[in-house]
Amino acid sequence: MIAKIGRSANLYGALAYNQLKVENEKGEILFGNKIIETASGNYSVAQLAQSFTPYLIANRNTEKHTLHISLNPDPKDTVSDNRFMEMADAYMQEMGYGQQPYVVFKHTDIDRSHIHIVSVCVDEQGKKISDSYEKMRSMNVCRELERKYGLIPATDKEHKQIDKVFRPVDYKAGDVKSQIASIVRHLPNYYKYQTLGEYNALLSLFNVTTGKVGGELQGEMRQGLLYIPLNEKGERAGHPFKASLFGKNAGLPALELHYAKSKETLKDHPAKPTIKAAVTIAMQSTSDKEAFKKQLGEQGINVVARRNDTGLIYGITFIDHNSKTVWNGSRLGKEFSANIFNDYWNNNIEPEIKGSVKLQSKISTSNNGDIPPDEPYHLFDFLNNAQKHEGDLIDAFGTLLPEAQGEDYQEQDFANRLKKKRSRKRGQK
Hints:
By secondary structure, the protein is of the alpha+beta class. It is built from 16 helices and 15 strands. It has a five-stranded antiparallel beta sheet, sandwiched between helices. The chain has a three-stranded antiparallel beta sheet with strand order 8-9-10. Strands 11-12-13 form a three-stranded antiparallel beta sheet, sandwiched between helices. Strand 12 (about 315-320) and strand 13 form a beta hairpin. Helix 11 (about 270-285) runs antiparallel to helix 12. About 40% of the residues are buried. It holds the Pfam family Relaxase. InterPro entries: Endonuclease_MobA/VirD2. This is Conjugal transfer protein MobB.
């Protein structure tokens, strides 16, 4: 079993991310520890967050106060809900968070079921709980849980390979061909995309792009593909490499086959409603381009906007690292097309956004407290009116690095991207 621990200043983001899984029937809440009960047994994100508020008020100096932990058994392990609950409780106790409020979510959106735990690392007195030797202690707890529950042990090889498969190309480090090869040879095994434009949007996160070339060979017109390294600014940073250098899977025929398979897979993909909801929430909460990208980045979704020389946005792509899917904006819906975002960001024309998101679920708690029922909570309203935080803007990629060997990397990716959210009132200039 592999545990991943993320820290951030975004409690609402962590809760909303998991609750969206529940609302899309790709997850459920297993239990909560020290979570205030409601009369109905239903919860909104705001209501869940109330249980953590006293702890955060007691310590306003700890910036990264939110914990987003995931426990990931081997795909071959079969773990019941009761076992997951026992494992979560034991893990939190051993890591020093047993007396903290926390919520345990089970995710079922991939082949391997796993759990997420959202908590805070400051206690009721405002003291920050020590994270000394946290990684080593976490690994020791995981080994003990593997022995206790008969789980398949995670090997050192599994941990080490996390960083080997995907890394952004660094042209200054040399051996650019090998760096590109490690990306090009593996991306089709992980991500679904339907066009060369979507493929290039994904490659851009790794400082790579492609270009078609054509010419006449033995009396026939032939087309080929070049892979070109980029620098951090997205500018060409070296000579191009023929696709044939990276094997048949890197060429146009193999890519076109991948597009066709992806089209069939994505036709009714369960991640689509979650991505649409996340994008809609971000559009509702801010009209600032960088804040929009940041907010989605915190949920494991990259935004790649393509512009011409005059700055006109002619394409926008959303890359969801949780489901490993790539979506041109118009594939999600006409309200997410490039024209909409061009008007929004370049011409200050606010889009008409329909709908709202209600995030509620039942939960078992270990607390007899109660809060009165309230009207259904709309996440849009919270994001529009939440306290505003100033923070450094992160770039479109950052540390979103997928993992190898079928690892569900969404927990680490999302947790690493949780940063302070900067919300602005709609229409504010």
